[in-house]
Amino acid sequence: MKRFLQYINKFLPCLQSRDIALVLGGGGARGFAHIGVIEVLQERGYNITSVAGTSMGALVGGLFAAGKLDELKSTVLSADRRQILSLLDVSLGLDHIATADNLSQLFDRMTQGVRIEDLPLPFCCVASDLVSGREHEFREGSLSEAVRASISIPGVFSPVRIGSEVLVDGSLHNTLPLNRVERRKGDMLVAVNACAPDSGTKSGYLQQRPKPQKPQGRVSKWIRQRVPKLNFQLSENYLNMAMRVAQVAVETNAQMAIALTPPDICVDIPTDAFGLMDFERGSEIIEYGRKAMEKALAEYKKY
């Protein structure tokens, strides 16, 4: 009986707590699910006392911490594909296909130059420094600049340069920064993993494809004469292969974070639920986040 009471006393503060340390992971457009998650928590009477995020989790979490969640949601729901492309500001460069300057200007207008240390609740986001190869934590400084660095998907957005650092998307180091959020005694740790494993397997890689005809061009003929055993057949094209490898790496990163710092509640948004660039599906993704959070809370209360 004594052991039972000790067990109950150990976990009772967490079960009774309405305070939440919230961690929002990266995941491109899937990160819009964070909006629905936050709405459900607030509707249920939970008090979010701190936030940490990576990439889209940094964007949503930072704007929530700045009191701009409703404004963000309105922007997401009203934007069409043309407006989204204009925000990304497509401009081909050696290390990017979009500068995201217009997106940065939107952040600046929404946050009005607020600094992280002046936010009404503790906020942290992470980026990755290509120069040192280390994770960069933002706990102070310009909120807009920090978010812009954290969302800089390598090869898509131009990196953010701060001093001697060249910063890109924080998912390279810490997709789900459970170890970075500020904690209070007795609070609940809630994570939203927008890079959860697929709901199914990628069976396309198992399919046999018909062997293509050998190219007959002058260059191909020259190559084959010198490398006669060269086989041109591919199971998937290079882009799909690169994207799949990156996806598996990010999923694994998030799973390792969960294993090292287990949250009380983890809301999973599978990578095959929505595409990385499905920004025009904001309404669906937000609703998906709401339902996922409601389900997670219901399951948590069973135990």
Descriptive labels:
single chain, 303 residues, alpha/beta, 10 strands, 41% helix, 18% strand, globular
Percentage of β-strand residues: 15-25%
Q: Specify the biggest β-sheet.
A: 8 strands, mixed
Total helix count?
Answer: 10
- Share of helix among residues? 40-55%
What is the string of helix and strand elements? HEHEHHHEEHEEHEEEHHEH
Terminal-residue CA separation: 19 Å
Q: Give Rg in angstroms.
A: 22 Å
> Looking at the structure, what is the overall shape?
globular
Backbone structural class:
alpha/beta
Fold and architecture overview:
It is a single chain. The protein is of the alpha/beta class. About 40% of the residues lie in helices and about 20% in strands. The chain has 10 helices and 10 strands. Strands 1, 2, 5, 6, 7, 8, 9 and 10 form an 8-stranded mixed β-sheet that branches. The protein has a two-stranded antiparallel sheet with strand order 3-4. A hairpin with a 2-residue loop joins strand 3 and strand 4. The protein starts with a helix and ends with a helix.
Q: What layout of secondary structure does this protein have?
A:
Blueprint: H1 2-16, E1 19-24, H2 33-43, E2 47-54, H3 56-65, H4 69-78, H5 81-88, E3 90-93, E4 96-98, H6 101-111, E5 123-129, E6 135-138, H7 143-150, E7 160-162, E8 165-169, E9 188-196, H8 218-226, H9 238-260, E10 265-270, H10 282-301
Helix pairs in contact: 2-10, 3-7, 6-7
